[in-house]
Structures are given as C-alpha cells and as structure tokens.
Design a protein that fits this description.
Oligomer: single chain
Mean pLDDT: 88
Distance between the termini: 23 Å
Number of helices: 14
Largest sheet: none
Low-confidence stretches: 1-27
Length: 253
C-alpha cells in the first residue's frame, strides 16, 4: 500500500513540508562545522570522514539532522556520484542506512537526491547500480508516494539513457495502482503522457531490458486503474497512438 513512515498509510491531506529558508537553517544549525568542511573537501579521505560523521549524527542527533536537511543535502548529495569510487560507494551505503532516520524530511530535498542518484543506474559497477536501486526503493517507504511518482515521471521525461529508463519505469509501475487509489488525477496526468511518448516501443517488446516491456507493464497497470478511459484519453491527446496501445492491451490483458 501507499505509505508514510508515521502511520503506515498514505494520508490524503499530507503535503511535503515547506523548504526552509537557508538563513533560518544556518542560524538554527546544530551540525558541527567540520561536517560541511569534510563533505566538501577536495581531499577524498576528508569527504569519506564527513560521510561517516553524517551517519553518526543521523543516528544520534536525528531531529537536528532533519532540521538541517536542506543545507546537509547541498553538501552531501554530490558525494552520491563522487569521482572517487570509495567515496561514491560509501556515500550510497550510508544513505541506505540513514533513510529510516531521515524519513519525511527527505520530501524537502527529493529532487537534489534523485538528480545525483539516478546517473548511478548507468554505472558499469554492479554494486553501485544495486545500492542505488535499493535507495530508490527505500524512498517508497520514507517519502510521500504521490510526490515520488511525480519525481520519477519527471526523470523519465528528461532521461534518455537506455539503461536508466527501464529501471525508473519499473519503479513507477510498482507504485501506480496504490497511488492511483488516493490521487487518481495526479497519476493519470503524470503517466498517460509517458505511455503516449513511448507508444512506439509497444510494437516490439521482446528481449531482455527492452524498453517496450517496461512501457507495456505500466500501460497494463494503468489500464487496470482507468479501464477504457485510458484509451479515450490517449485518443484525445494523440489519436495515432491509440491503435498501438489497444492492440497491445488486447494481446497482454
């Protein structure tokens, strides 16, 4: 089910908290100055130490870290694709461990985190891809799910890497039915254009990691939510695509 971390269920009235004014954050910042110095250092060992320091703070001073999440994000998120492989890997490992502590504070900084994380999905290093995928899955537990669907749809629209798109499409599909139950218009507004844009992929869906199979999964799940309204909406926006989508659904549902 769609979840938030406090109640275990999505709360329709819940919205991401307002982004804190940076001046207010700095004044109230209870983080040691060494944290920011280390995270932004030109020395990879200092950056590594800064990540370890942040993990310890997230466990021991959880509320303070949440309150400073915007400034921390500015310093920490570049480490998620750090040019030093040891720092890059350690940052991902620690973020995965920090997710339960950061919880809903991540709503404020979701885009900066995904912008640094998503390129890792195209890495040649399997452990980097696996860790990144696990973190993105962790967002489903700790981040507002409708916001997360919107963020992943934004990534699909701006991302052309053939190794990244299938993974993000799969994560959208994992959430689409649950989020549609609570925010149907939002889901339809964000996902129908993706199906239309990638409708040609449905013609060929064979092969491992073929993009068409992932577009097809999303199409079938959205059809379960919308029924024939999906076809009507596609016909309204791009009539030339509706025949392809209909044929795919006939063969796969």
């Amino acid at each position: 089910a769609v979840v938030s971390t406090q109640s275990g269920h999505y709360e329709p009235g819940r919205r991401p908290g307002p982004r804190r004014d940076l001046r207010e954050t700095v004044q109230a910042d209870k983080m040691p100055h060494s944290l920011y110095e280390n995270l932004t250092s030109s020395n990879w060992q200092d950056r590594y130490a800064g990540i370890a320091e942040l993990l310890e703070l997230a466990v021991k001073q959880t509320a303070d870290v949440r309150n400073c999440i915007v400034r921390i994000s500015d310093a920490f998120t570049p480490r998620l694709k750090d040019p030093n492989s040891k720092v890059n890997l350690y940052a991902l490992q620690c973020l995965l461990r920090m997710l339960p502590h950061l919880e809903t504070s991540l709503d404020q900084v979701l885009t900066p985190f995904t912008e640094q994380l998503v390129p890792n999905l195209a890495s040649q290093r399997a452990n980097i891809v696996t860790l990144t995928s696990q973190i993105l899955d962790g967002f489903r537990v700790h981040v507002d799910n409708p916001q997360l669907v919107c963020e992943y749809c934004r990534i699909i629209k701006s991302q052309n890497n053939p190794r990244i798109k299938p993974i993000i499409l799969d994560k959208i599909s994992d959430m689409v039915r649950d989020v549609h139950e609570v925010r149907p218009k939002l889901v339809e507004q964000m996902t129908v254009p993706i199906i239309i844009e990638h409708g040609d992929c449905l013609v060929q869906t064979n092969g491992v990691n073929n993009l068409g199979s992932y577009v097809g999964r999303l199409t079938c799940l959205l059809y379960q939510c919308m029924g024939n309204r999906l076809l009507a909406e596609i016909a309204r926006i791009k009539p030339s695509t509706v025949g392809t989508v209909r044929e795919y659904l006939v063969s796969n549902t």
